[in-house]
Specification:
The chain is α/β, with parallel strands linked by helices. Helix content is 53%, strand content 7%. The protein is elongated, with a radius of gyration of 31 Å.
Length: 739
C-alpha cells in the first residue's frame, strides 16, 4: 500500500521553483515622494515632524518582506548575512558620502566647540546607532544645549531602519524553519510571526510613549511595530481583491490622511504610540489601493512619471536636506525660515541629492552588479561644461572594470567614513587636551606667595596661597578672542572628579551622579555637594579647594533637575530618593561641610526659593549637629547661550550683556539661616558690576544657557572662602593670594 503524501511536500517545501516575478509598484515610489515632501516642508517651515518618516519605516519593511517571502515560497532558504550585506551595500555609499561631506562642512562652518558632538554623531550615524545616542543625550540633563540641532539628528530613523534590516532577515529565516518543521506554508507562519512582533512592540510603544515619550520617539522597540505593519501588508496584499471604485476611495483617503497628519496630530508629544497608527494606516491604504490604473484614484497623481520619479531621489534628499537646513539657519542666524530662504534650502538639497544619486548611488549599485530596487529611470546628467568633470567621474565608476562585492562595499564605506570622523575626533581631542592644559596652567598661577617655611605643627589649610590673574580674580581684564578653557574643550566643562560612590549612592535607574574624591586621606574633613546640576557646577569650588589646600575630601551627589520645594523630599521619584540618600550619608558619615543650592534661577525673572531647603537642613543638622551647611544662591540662566552670543556678535557686544537678576527674597534667606544654614551669594563675582557677560577675566563664564564652566567656578574659590569665613571658620581660608 502506498504511503500517504507528506505534508512537507506543500507550502514552502515543494520542489524548488523560480521565484515569482515581483512587479514594480509605482504607487510606492509616489508615496515615497509625497512622504519626503512632507518631511522636508515640515522641517523647513513648520519646525516639526509630519509623520512622513513613519511612511518610510513601513515601506522599507514592506519591500524587504515582499522580496524575502516570495523567495522563500519558491523554496529558497533565506540567507540573512547575504541579505544584510546587499541591503547595506546599497544604503551605505550615499550615507557615508553625506556623513563625510557634512563633517567637512561642519569643520569649516561650525564653531569648534561643537565639533566633538558632531564627530561622535557622525560615528553613531555611520554605524546605525544614532537613535540610541540621541536617547542618551535627550534623557541626560547634563548634555547641555547647543544653538542648533545636531547635523546628524535625522539619522535616527535610518539607524532604526538599519537595526531592523539586520533583525528582519533572521526573523524570515526563523519563519522558514518553523514552516519547514510544521509542514506549513511560509506566508502563514510569517503572518503569525510578524503579527506577534506587531502586538508586542505596539503594546511597548504605547506604554513607553506614556511613560517617556522623548525616549519612545527614538527607541527601536517602540518603532518595530511600524516595520511589522509593513511586513504584514506585504504578506496579505496578494490576497486582497479590491474593485476600482474602492481602490480609488482608499487611495485618496490614505493621501488625505497623510497630508493632514502633521497638521491634525501633536506628533512631537504623542508619537509613536496610538497616534502613529494614523500615518501607518494612511500608507497602508495607499499601497493596498495600488493595482490597475483607475480613472479618478490617487494613482493618477502618484504614478505620474514626474512625481513618482522623484521617489528615486528620496533617500539622498532625506539625507542632505537636514544638514543643509541646519547650516543655512546657523549661518543666517535664522530662528524661523522665510519662504524664499526655504525655497533656496530645497533647491540646494535637490541639487546635492541629484549629484549623490548620479555620482555615488548608481555607480555603487552597478559596482556590485545590482539594480537599485524600485528604480525609475532618469535621464543622464545634462551635457553642460560645468558638469563635464562629474560626467567623466560617473563614467569611470560605471566602467565594467570596476567591480565589487557587497561585503567589500560595506567595508570600504565604513572604513573610509570612519577614518574621517575618527581622525577628526582624534585631532579635536588632542587640541582640547592642550587647551585644558593651558587652562590648568592659568589656574596654577605663578610662584606661590612668600611665606615662612612651616613645620608640621604650624601647617594649616591654605598656608601657601596661589597667585592667579584670570576669571573672577581678574574681572577687569579685557576680553580675548579665544577665552579659557578654549573652544575645543568648552563642552566638557562639567565638574565630576573622583571614584563612583561606594555607599549612599544616587538611586539606580536615574541620571544622577555620585563621585567621591578622597585624596586628602581618611582623617581629612569632607565636603558634600548635593542637589541638582547647578550644585554639580559649584562642586568645582570643592575640587579646587582640595587641590590647593590638600586638606579636604569632596563628595558630589546630584540628580538632574532636582529641586527642593515643599514635598520634594518625600516624593517617591529619583529626586526625592537623591535627597534622602544624602540625608542617610550625613547621618552616618557626618561630613564637616554640606553645600547645596537654595534657589532656582529663571531667565529674566527672580530666583524661585527652594522652600523645602529649610526643612532638609533641619533634618541634616538633627542627625549631624557638627556639620556646617552652606546654601548657595543659584547662578543666572538665559534664553540663549552667552558663549554662542559672544562668538556670533563679539565678546563685548551689548547684545550679549544681561542685567544680573534681582536679589533673593530676604524672608527666605532668614528661613535658611534660622534652620542653621549659611547663606552665600556669589552673584557679584559671576556678574561683576551687576552685568552678566559671556567671559570675565579671559575665562568663559557659561558653557550653555545656564551652566557655569568648571574653569570659571575654580576662580571663585577665594570669594567663596571669604563669604563663609565668619560662619564656617574651618573651611580653608587662604587659597588665592591677594595683591
Amino acid at each position: 500500500m502506498a504511503s500517504p503524501p507528506s505534508r512537507r511536500g506543500t507550502g514552502a517545501h515543494r520542489a524548488r521553483r523560480p521565484a515569482p516575478r515581483l512587479g514594480f509598484i509605482p504607487e510606492v515610489q509616489g508615496l515615497r515622494t509625497l512622504a519626503l515632501l512632507l518631511v522636508v516642508v515640515f522641517h523647513i517651515w513648520f519646525g516639526r515632524v509630519s509623520g512622513g518618516v513613519d511612511v518610510f519605516l513601513l515601506v522599507s519593511a514592506f519591500l524587504l518582506t515582499r522580496s524575502l517571502a516570495a523567495a522563500s515560497e519558491a523554496g529558497a532558504r533565506p540567507a540573512p548575512l547575504r541579505t544584510i550585506l546587499q541591503r547595506f551595500a546599497r544604503l551605505l555609499p550615499v550615507a557615508a558620502a553625506v556623513i563625510v561631506l557634512t563633517l567637512l562642512a561642519a569643520w569649516l562652518l561650525v564653531p569648534r566647540h561643537l565639533w566633538g558632538d558632531t564627530n561622535w554623531d557622525a560615528l553613531a550615524a555611520l554605524f546605525y546607532v544614532e537613535n540610541w545616542r540621541l536617547i542618551l543625550e535627550n534623557v541626560d540633563y547634563y548634555a547641555g544645549g547647543d544653538a542648533a540641532s545636531s547635523l546628524f539628528q535625522h539619522f535616527w530613523s535610518l539607524s532604526v531602519q538599519g537595526q531592523i534590516f539586520i533583525l528582519w532577515p533572521f526573523l524570515h529565516l526563523l519563519g522558514y524553519g518553523i514552516a519547514r518543521r510544521l509542514g506549513r506554508g511560509v506566508r502563514g507562519v510569517l503572518i503569525a510571526l510578524f503579527g506577534a512582533v506587531f502586538a508586542v512592540s505596539f503594546a511597548w510603544s504605547v506604554w513607553l510613549t506614556a511613560a517617556d515619550q522623548q525616549v519612545a520617539y527614538f527607541e527601536t522597540g517602540a518603532r518595530a511595530w511600524e516595520f511589522a505593519a509593513g511586513s504584514l501588508l506585504a504578506l496579505v496584499l496578494p490576497a486582497l481583491r479590491l474593485g476600482p471604485a474602492l481602490r480609488a476611495l482608499l487611495g485618496w483617503l490614505g493621501v488625505a490622511m497623510l497630508v493632514a497628519c502633521g497638521f491634525v496630530l501633536p506628533v512631537e508629544s504623542t508619537f509613536p504610540g496610538f497616534a502613529a497608527l494614523w500615518p501607518v494606516a494612511a500608507a497602508a491604504l495607499v499601497i493596498a489601493a495600488a493595482g490597475a490604473p483607475t480613472r479618478l484614484g490617487a494613482d493618477r497623481l502618484l504614478t505620474r512619471r514626474w512625481f513618482g520619479g522623484l521617489g528615486h531621489y528620496s533617500y539622498a534628499l532625506y539625507l542632505v536636506h537636514w544638514p543643509v537646513l541646519i547650516l543655512y539657519r546657523r549661518l543666517g542666524g535664522l530662528e524661523e525660515v522665510p519662504l524664499l530662504d526655504g525655497l533656496w534650502i530645497m533647491a540646494i538639497s535637490a541639487a546635492a541629492s541629484a549629484l549623490l544619486v548620479h555620482l555615488v548611488e548608481r555607480p555603487a549599485a552597478r559596482a556590485v552588479g545590482r539594480r537599485v530596487p524600485g528604480f525609475v529611470r532618469a535621464g543622464p546628467l545634462r551635457r553642460t561644461p560645468l558638469l563635464r568633470p562629474a560626467r567623466r567621474f560617473a563614467a569611470a565608476l560605471r566602467s565594467p572594470r570596476i567591480r565589487s562585492t557587497p561585503a567589500a562595499t560595506v567595508a570600504v564605506c565604513l572604513v573610509a567614513a570612519g577614518l574621517v570622523a575618527g581622525g577628526g575626533e582624534l585631532v579635536r581631542s588632542q587640541l582640547a587636551a592642550a587647551e585644558a592644559g593651558h587652562a590648568q596652567d592659568a589656574l596654577s598661577g605663578g610662584t606661590p606667595a612668600p611665606s615662612p617655611e612651616p613645620t608640621e605643627e604650624d601647617r594649616s589649610p591654605g598656608w601657601d596661597p596661589i597667585t592667579i590673574e584670570v576669571g573672577a580674580e581678574a574681572p577687569g581684564l579685557p576680553s580675548v578672542a579665544d577665552p579659557l578653557p578654549g573652544a575645543g574643550s568648552i563642552e566638557y566643562e562639567w565638574a565630576g572628579e573622583g571614584a563612583e560612590c561606594a555607599e549612599y549612592d544616587t538611586p539606580p535607574g536615574t541620571d544622577g551622579v555620585c563621585f567621591e574624591s578622597l585624596g586628602a586621606g581618611p582623617d581629612a574633613p569632607t565636603a558634600l555637594f548635593v542637589g541638582n546640576s547647578h550644585t554639580q557646577q559649584f562642586a568645582a569650588i570643592g575640587y579646587r579647594t582640595a587641590e590647593i589646600s590638600e586638606s579636604l575630601n569632596v563628595r558630589l551627589q546630584a540628580g538632574p533637575g532636582c529641586p527642593l520645594r515643599d514635598g520634594d523630599l518625600e516624593a517617591d521619584d529619583a529626586c526625592g530618593k537623591t535627597w534622602r540618600a544624602a540625608l542617610d550619608y550625613i547621618a552616618n558619615e557626618r561630613p564637616e561641610f554640606v553645600v547645596l543650592v537654595g534657589t532656582m534661577s529663571a531667565a529674566g525673572e527672580a530666583d524661585e526659593p527652594m522652600t523645602g531647603a529649610p526643612e532638609w537642613i533641619e533634618q541634616a543638622l538633627e542627625s549631624s549637629p557638627g556639620t556646617s551647611v552652606i546654601v548657595l544662591r543659584d547662578s543666572p540662566r538665559f534664553e540663549t547661550a552667552p558663549y554662542e552670543c559672544g562668538l556670533a556678535n563679539g565678546w563685548d557686544a551689548s547684545a550679549c550683556e544681561v542685567p544680573a537678576p534681582p536679589a533673593v527674597d530676604p524672608g527666605f534667606i532668614a528661613e535658611v539661616e534660622a534652620a542653621g544654614g549659611t547663606w552665600t551669594d556669589l552673584s557679584e563675582h559671576i556678574c561683576p558690576d551687576g552685568v552678566c557677560r559671556p567671559q570675565v577675566g579671559g575665562v568663559v563664564v557659561w558653557f550653555d544657557e545656564n551652566h557655569l564652566t568648571a574653569t570659571y567656578v575654580k576662580t571663585l574659590v577665594q570669594h567663596f572662602a571669604d563669604a563663609v569665613a565668619e560662619d564656617v571658620p574651618d573651611w580653608p581660608a587662604e587659597l588665592y593670594a591677594r595683591p
